[in-house]
Write a structure and sequence with these properties.
- The protein is an alpha+beta fold.
- It folds into four domains: 289 residues, no CATH class; 68 residues, Distorted Sandwich (Calcium-transporting ATPase, cytoplasmic transduction domain A); 112 residues, Rossmann fold (3-Layer(aba) Sandwich); 131 residues, Calcium-transporting ATPase, cytoplasmic domain N, CATH 3.40.1110.10.
- The chain is built from 25 helices and 22 strands.
- The termini are far apart.
- Bound molecules: adenosine-5'-triphosphate (ATP), potassium ion (K) and magnesium ion.
- The site of adenosine-5'-triphosphate has 23 residues, from helix 12, helix 14, strand 14, strand 15 and strand 16.
- It is an enzyme of class 7 (translocase).
- Keywords: ATP-binding, Cell membrane, Hydrolase, Ion transport, Magnesium, Membrane, Metal-binding, Nucleotide-binding, Phosphoprotein, Potassium, Potassium transport, Translocase, Transmembrane, Transmembrane helix, Transport.
């Protein structure tokens, strides 16, 4: 309900004149991500990976491993039985089948299993290679641990504990994951992100998190360590790309259950078949029954299913996004709504003070004075840039007035920061509506020109902060921010995919409307507190929608956890990164579009190959069933509608086709089906036509061709 009240159509923003705003204050520009840098860089597979995958295909033959894939396990059992028959043709009763047929069937079945194992192994290969290179960047680092007496002691990074405080200076490696609690530095994070331009890390605000193993390239920072050694981001990253934590997703389990049940039904059919044929007076040989069973069961999808899932996760990683689970990637494919925060996501997030505007009868000097006191200890970018602007304007900062007072840190809940002075006076600055409420609660009145001045700033897309002492408001700070370029095109793309975008911001409605319009989001919600962001997500979820959220701030963390897909920016706070189920190493919020596409592609690829696999099997019946009966009753040649040379050749051809279709589809399973933004109905009918119809036709042609080749030998 709440969301309903708050959601405003962006169209309303049309009332406000559009304004060209191009700041020259983009000193934090390195935060701007580099699109798609990692997309084309890597080859699908290289020689070493192929050799490793070939070895793994044999290792995976271990029945204890095979049993996890019931379809291929059945094929493996078929291989073992025909192998026994090759050496002892009468092991299971008298047989009229020639030994060469047993060998051949057994060999084809072995290859069928190996091909399926190869598909999985090659899909796992890239993650393993990446994990190896990450492990190389993991090393012991000397940390300057800060002691109680203010001195530092050199210790090994491996003995660092959560809560320790370390100093890191220019040229040094950051010894562990942590948060900057003092200072500002530029940090080279290329070891983790692959992006060579250094990023600014600073205390307070949303850019304070640092990762172990990255290097400070300028200045010095004081860092509070947030993770014990062995539980770091790099450790998590390694085990993720290595696939050590890969679990089957609910969708995958459901599909597996269906396919296994199908396999079981076909097994019952094939096992009971001899009873009927015996009754009718002819016998079916064991290797022929096994060949029939293997053709009936969905081996194509059974062999490729796990590779499809692994490759999907891997594609996300290639985009420099770390997905904590395959489930999150799949959920991304079904997303209906995306919630984004404004500051740092849609805008650059380096909100900087650009002007001071006194209200009522307050003077510039008075406003400067109280603004200074409200910001002296405000370690956020907003606070620091306010102090910088005051210095620029030549106003003196009176630190003694503030001395001994109590610092009121900025909180997303109160949307204010400031000081309680020793003499009892209380100084605040913050969101205009919050400061107004605060002043009214103390019996103050609101200056008549305040709203007008504040709206003027907001209409330009800026953020006004009101400055007040007790019951009196002195004026406004004008904070500027810039919308990142290319936002409109990205949101248009999402609209084509049928996805609604909502900007949820702590900022005021007018600023929100201006930025929403400039960026081209569908809806916006202003004056959001952290719990409001969760409410919006819950509301959408209660409407049956799957919701994705991108964010970077600590105030976004609860919402990131509530969302079905939570994508945190690597530049963001530790809290945000821990709550999310994906982290974008490039800190590019519009990356959610790629993640959604990859998720859709994963679901589509799995659906299409399942369709293909089942359609495929149907075509095989036409080859193998007539052949089987013709073997028993030679007069039934009329059944040979495909005109295959001999019954045995028909059976072998169907089996060979069944085996080689698996490696032929590996590239498709790995790369995924190309996804173009279109409605899901159009997509479904398109895929059914291609993969359903294709699945029936391809085997007819394939088996016929193989039969022509096979007939040269038998
Ligand atoms: N250092 C600060 N001191 C006082 N008030 C602040 C400070 N920083 C921000 N504010 C005010 O608090 C509001 C909420 O800030 P918050 O960081 O929660 O959300 P936001 O960054 O504006 O929006 P988003 O959720 O899109 O990132 C801001 O719009 C601003 O009015
Ligand atoms: K099959
Ligand atoms: Mg924020």
């Amino acid at each position: 309900m709440m969301a309903n009240l708050l959601v405003k159509e962006t169209n309303r923003a049309a009332e406000f004149p559009e304004k060209e705003r191009r700041g020259s204050f983009q000193k934090n520009l390195p935060q701007q991500p580099n699109h798609n840098d990692h997309k084309d860089g890597k080859k699908l597979m290289d020689k070493e990976m192929v050799i490793q995958a070939l070895k793994d295909s044999f290792i995976k033959l271990d029945p204890r491993k095979m049993v996890k894939n019931p379809i291929m396990f059945v094929v493996e059992i078929g291989f073992i039985i025909t192998l026994i028959l090759s050496f002892a043709p009468n092991a299971f009763g008298n047989s009229g089948v020639e030994p060469w047929f047993n060998y051949t069937v057994s060999l084809i079945l072995l290859f069928t299993v190996l091909f399926a194992n190869f598909a999985e192994a090659i899909a796992e290969g890239r993650g393993k290679a990446q994990a190896d290179s990450l492990k190389k960047s993991k090393q012991e680092i000397t940390a300057n641990l800060l002691k109680g007496n203010g001195k530092t002691e050199k210790i090994s990074s491996t003995s660092l504990k959560k809560g320790d405080v370390v100093m890191v200076s220019q040229g040094e490696m950051i010894p562990g994951d942590g948060e900057v609690i003092e200072g500002l530095a530029s940090v080279d994070e290329s070891a983790i992100t692959g992006e060579s331009a250094p990023v600014i890390k600073e205390a307070g605000g949303d850019f304070n998190s640092v990762t172990g193993g990255t290097r400070v390239v300028s200045d010095q920072i004081k860092v509070r360590i947030t993770s014990n050694s062995g539980e770091s981001f790099l450790d998590r990253m390694i085990s993720l790309v290595e696939g050590a934590e890969r679990q089957k997703t609910p969708n995958e389990i459901a599909l597996n259950t269906v396919l296994t049940s199908l396999t079981l039904i076909f097994m019952i059919v094939v096992v009971t078949l001899p009873f009927f044929t015996n009754y009718l007076g002819f016998a079916l040989e064991i290797p022929i029954l096994i060949a029939l069973l293997v053709c009936l069961i969905p081996t194509t999808i059974g062999g490729l299913l796990s590779a499809i899932g692994i490759a999907g996760m891997d594609r996300v990683t290639q985009f420099n996004v770390l997905a904590m689970s395959g489930k999150a990637v799949e959920a991304a494919g079904d997303i209906n709504t995306i919630i984004l925060d404004k500051t740092g996501t849609i805008t650059f997030g380096n909100r900087m003070a650009s002007n001071f505007i006194p209200v009522s009868d307050a003077s510039q000097e008075e406003l400067h004075y109280w603004t200074g006191i409200s910001s002296l200890n405000d370690e956020t970018p907003e606070g620091r840039s306010t102090i910088e602007l005051l210095k620029e304007k030549g106003s003196k900062l009176n630190a003694s007035e503030a001395a001994g007072g109590q610092i009121i840190e900025f909180k997303a809940e109160t949307r204010m920061s400031g000081m309680d002075l020793r003499d009892g006076r209380r100084v605040r600055k913050g969101a205009v509506d919050s400061v107004k409420d605060w002043v009214i609660a103390q019996g103050g009145t609101i200056p008549a020109d305040l709203d007008e001045e504040a709206n003027e700033i907001a209409r330009e897309g800026g953020t006004p902060l009101a400055v007040a002492v007790d019951s009196r408001i002195f004026g406004l700070i004008y904070l500027k921010d810039t919308v990142k370029p290319g936002m409109k095109e990205r949101f248009d793309q999402l609209r084509q995919m049928g996805i609604k975008t909502i900007m949820a911001t702590g900022d005021n409605p007018l600023t929100a409307a201006t930025i929403a319009k400039e960026a081209g989001v569908d809806e916006f919600i202003a004056e959001c507190k952290p719990e409001d962001k969760i409410e919006v997500i819950k509301y959408e979820q209660s409407q049956g929608k799957l919701v994705a959220m991108t964010g970077d701030g600590t105030n976004d963390a609860p919402a990131l956890a509530q969302a079905d897909v939570g994508l945190a920016m690597n530049s963001g706070t530790t809290a945000a990164k821990e709550a999310a189920n994906m982290v974008d190493l490039d800190s590019n919020p519009t990356k959610i579009i790629e993640v959604v596409s990859i998720g859709k592609q994963l679901l589509m690829t799995r659906g299409a190959l399942t369709t293909f696999s089942i359609a495929n099997d149907i075509a095989k019946y036409f080859a193998i069933i007539p052949a089987m009966f013709m073997l028993a009753i030679p007069e039934m040649t009329a059944l040979n509608i495909m005109g295959l040379s001999t019954p045995l050749s028909a059976i072998l051809s169907a089996l060979i086709f069944n085996a080689i279709i698996i490696p032929m589809l590996i590239p498709l399973a790995m790369k995924g089906i190309a996804y173009k933004p279109m409605s899901s109905n159009a997509l479904l009918s398109r895929n059914l036509t291609i993969y359903g119809l294709g699945g029936v036709l391809v085997p007819f042609i394939g088996i016929k061709l193989i039969d022509m080749a096979v007939s040269l030998f038998i």
